[in-house]
């Protein structure tokens, strides 16, 4: 039996096979939820996944798209926002 | 709508939200475009019409004009004041680039000095081990 703390669902469980034929359960922390567009709610592409300690040493261009509003709005919503601002002015 | 000299705003890619000038027509759907790069940040490139948003201003240039010609006509027709763009100091940019190149050269010289010293130290150690 696992510890009573590990019997809840807050950790992710992974089955690892052993050479003798049995298996062991490894416990792993869950990844944070993916970022989404602030206007339409669509999940964003080109944004780094995973926990912070694995992403933090990656290059800046891998973490976010280099576009204006990159990592905050999706590509279609930036296109709408820019073309609407042109018509107003 | 996208004739030569029309000023547009780019809506897609890394240059989204920046002003550019149409220089040449390629197809019905493609067009050549410049900022120029030193002034607004848009590189001289081919661009789809779907990724552009035209505005009312227009300048007089010949088709396939160079970047320096476009920059001069933008100053003549006071486009910077109409669109409220900051005028870049070209002398400042040149100084910044020169300083960067100087730093690179100094770093390369340091590396060249360090490398031969390491090689000389390694060679005598190997001879000592063979004697033992």
Protein model, in words:
- The complex is a heterodimer of chains A (89) and B (132).
- The radius of gyration of chain A is 21 Å and the shape is elongated.
- Chain A has a two-stranded antiparallel sheet.
- Chain A has one domain (4-88).
- Chain A has 89 residues and is of the alpha+beta class.
- In chain A, 25% of the residues lie in helices and 16% in strands.
- Chain A has helices at 52-55, 60-63, 75-88; strands spanning 11-17, 23-29.
- Chain B has 132 residues and is an alpha+beta fold.
- Chain B has two domains: 6-83, SH3 type barrels; 89-119.
- Chain B has a five-stranded antiparallel beta sheet with strand order 4-3-2-1-5, with no helix packed on it.
- In chain B, a hairpin with an 8-residue loop joins strand 1 (6-10) and strand 2 (19-25).
- The relative contact order of chain B is 0.12.
- The interface between A and B is small, with 9 and 9 residues.
Total E-strand runs of chain A: 2
Give the distance, in angstroms, between the N- and C-terminal Cα atoms of chain B: 85 Å
The multimeric state of the shown protein is heterodimer
Structural class category of chain B:
alpha+beta
What CATH calls the topology of the largest domain in chain B is SH3 type barrels
Low-confidence stretches of chain B: none
Report the total helices of chain A. 3
User: Which range does the strand content of chain B fall in?
Assistant: 15-25%
The tally of strands of chain B reads 5
Detail the topology: elements first, then pairings:
The complex is a heterodimer of chains A (89) and B (132).
Chain A: E1 11-17, E2 23-29, H1 52-55, H2 60-63, H3 75-88
Antiparallel strand pairs in A: 1-2
Chain B: E1 6-10, E2 19-25, E3 30-34, E4 45-48, E5 52-58, H1 67-76, H2 79-83, H3 90-131
């Amino acid at each position: 039996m696992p510890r009573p703390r590990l019997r809840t669902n807050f950790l992710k469980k992974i089955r690892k096979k052993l050479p003798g034929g049995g298996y062991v359960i490894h416990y792993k922390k869950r990844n944070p939820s993916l970022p989404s567009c602030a206007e339409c709610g669509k999940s964003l592409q080109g944004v780094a996944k995973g926990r912070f300690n694995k992403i933090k040493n990656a290059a800046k261009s891998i973490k976010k798209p280099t576009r204006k509003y990159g990592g905050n709005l999706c590509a279609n919503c930036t296109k709408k926002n820019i073309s609407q601002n042109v018509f107003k002015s | 709508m996208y004739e030569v000299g029309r000023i547009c705003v780019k809506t897609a890619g890394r240059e989204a939200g920046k002003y550019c000038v149409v220089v040449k027509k390629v197809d019905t759907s493609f067009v050549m475009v410049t900022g120029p790069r030193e002034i607004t940040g848009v590189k001289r490139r081919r661009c789809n019409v779907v990724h552009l948003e035209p505005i009312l201003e227009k300048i007089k240039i010949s088709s396939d004009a160079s970047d320096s010609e476009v920059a001069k006509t933008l100053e003549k027709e006071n486009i910077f004041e109409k669109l409220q763009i900051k005028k870049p100091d070209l002398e400042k940019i040149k100084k910044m680039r020169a300083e960067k190149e100087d730093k690179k050269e100094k770093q390369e010289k340091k590396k060249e000095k360090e490398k031969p010293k390491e090689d000389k130290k390694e060679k005598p150690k190997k001879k000592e081990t063979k004697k033992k």
